Amino acid sequence: MTSPSTTLSLVDTDPAELTVDAIVIGVHSQTGDQAATSGFAGSLLLASGAESIAAAFDGKLTETLALLGATGGPGEVIKLATLGTIAAPIVAAVGLGPEPTGAAPAPETLRRAAGAAVRALAGAPRVALTLPLPDDADAPAALRAVAEGALLGGYRFAGYKTKPQPTRREPVAEVLVAVPDAADQTAGAEITRAQAVAGAVRLCRDWVNTAPNELRPPSFADAVAAAAREAGLGVEVLDEEALRAGGYGGIIAVGQGSEAPPRLVKLTYTPEAGGNGKRVALVGKGITFDTGGVSIKPAQGMWEMKSDMGGAAAVGAAMLAVAALKPSVAVTGYLPMAENMPSGTAYRPGDVITMYSGKKVEVLNTDAEGRMVLADGIARACEDGTDYLFETSTLTGGQVIALGKRIAGVMGTPELCERVKVVGESVGEPAWPMPLPDDVRKGMDSDVADISQVNAVMDRAGHMLQGGVFLREFVAEGVDWAHIDIAGPSYHSGEATGYWTKGGTGVPVRTLVQLVEDVAANG
């Protein structure tokens, strides 16, 4: 099921003369002495880009917006009928917060503002954004942020309703971004990149939002494989027979409780002329539904476990963006997929599983299934050969407890974890490095196998770290790796905010793509 698409283009026409259904401007909030000395509308300051529109309103635009309740707070959207003052019938003022001193708004501020504005203007087919863009070296990053925010804020999952919804307005179909020169090649390249990356994020969201009865491992594998082949990627799909014959004990164990058998999808991107010689592996957890298995979860909130394949969805979508952007580095994606169900054939606490790497794992909690499938995916990636391995998964509730629902936890090689942190911050998908303490590993010693799947006495202290410690056992020596736990950021159950809509967020597609480009540029 595919969400409605949004097109994006550049324009350098005077914003006041644009024949669109709505035009978006930015407004800053002012506080304290600034507001006190500025009269009635002193709480507002128009952002750059809105000059010609302000002139058309004879300097009364901020006063009118203030009368309508505008404060300039981040993400606030206030609509104003123009009554013929400018060509567009509606002006939408989006809050950018306080004006930065001597700088343009941060890219993430612009990204969230663009997303909030485009979402608020659903029902308007054609919208123009005239938000503040710097004229220096920061211009490409700002334009990229505005473009991404617009495309992601306008996302809406197609859904399953069978009756027309009279109050449901269609997402914005076309977005124009106002720039000084629409023919500028650098600006055009940013729009092209934003369309490729945001398109991948939207597809990731679609996969995560799809009902779990419609996206079980075989159908998920088929969907990813079809999209990858169309994009020109190499595709290999291992079915349950191939997985069993190949010794993928972790994937088989988790998937054996379901009538929908497991899969492992491998996607390969080969750069022209071999690229820069470096190799990147991306591994993503693809549990299409997680009941917890025999160690069954509570009923409350279990329906959100359709999102437990968010890591695999992100890796598959990121690979599609890589295929479009063509970086000069080899990239391979591994998507282990299974459905974790309780049944007479399900794996049990107490089982000892022989993993793809040959290590023996004692199972203590069948709800710690993600690390089982990931361990096999990681071992296969290392066997195939890679210099950098980035793995992402909705792995632990401990991530949400420790870092909340917006910040991912990252564990692994310290230098690579720091690289993930820097890149994540730059794209608006923050991640925070976490340790892998020796005492956590000691707590996972098993009396009968090489390692327990969780703490041997079921102590949940450092639960997020236990996942990272376990996965480290399957990373080959000499491979730099990072485990990105997105249990919180992958799925947004609250109301829409910024460019996040309800449901799948697409985190960390943009981080993975940027990491690949970073390796391509810097090794």
Automatic annotation (TrEMBL):
BP terms from Gene Ontology: proteolysis
Q: How is the cofactor bound?
A: Binds 2 manganese ions per subunit.
Q: Which domain of life is it from?
A: Bacteria
Note whether Acyltransferase occurs among the keywords: no
What reaction is this protein's catalytic activity?
Release of an N-terminal amino acid, Xaa-|-Yaa-, in which Xaa is preferably Leu, but may be other amino acids including Pro although not Arg or Lys, and Yaa may be Pro. Amino acid amides and methyl esters are also readily hydrolyzed, but rates on arylamides are exceedingly low; Release of an N-terminal amino acid, preferentially leucine, but not glutamic or aspartic acids
Could you tell me the keywords of this UniProt record? Aminopeptidase, Cytoplasm, Hydrolase, Manganese, Metal-binding, Protease
GO MF, one annotated term: metalloaminopeptidase activity
The cofactor required is: Mn(2+)
Using the record's annotation, list all stretches that form the Cytosol aminopeptidase domain: 365-372
The family database entries (InterPro entries) matched by this protein are listed as: Leucine_aapep/pepB, Macro_dom-like, Peptidase_M17_C, Peptidase_M17_leu_NH2_pept, Peptidase_M17_N
Active site per UniProt: 297, 371
Write down the EC number.
Answer: 3.4.11.1, 3.4.11.10
The record's Gene Ontology cellular component field reads: cytoplasm
Q: Which residues bind Mn(2+) 2?
A: 285, 290, 308, 369
Instruction: Sum up the protein's function in the record's words.
Output: Presumably involved in the processing and regular turnover of intracellular proteins. Catalyzes the removal of unsubstituted N-terminal amino acids from various peptides.
NCBIfam families listed in its UniProt record:
PRK00913.1-2 (NF002073)
The name this protein carries in UniProt is Probable cytosol aminopeptidase
Q: Which organism is it from?
A: Micromonospora siamensis
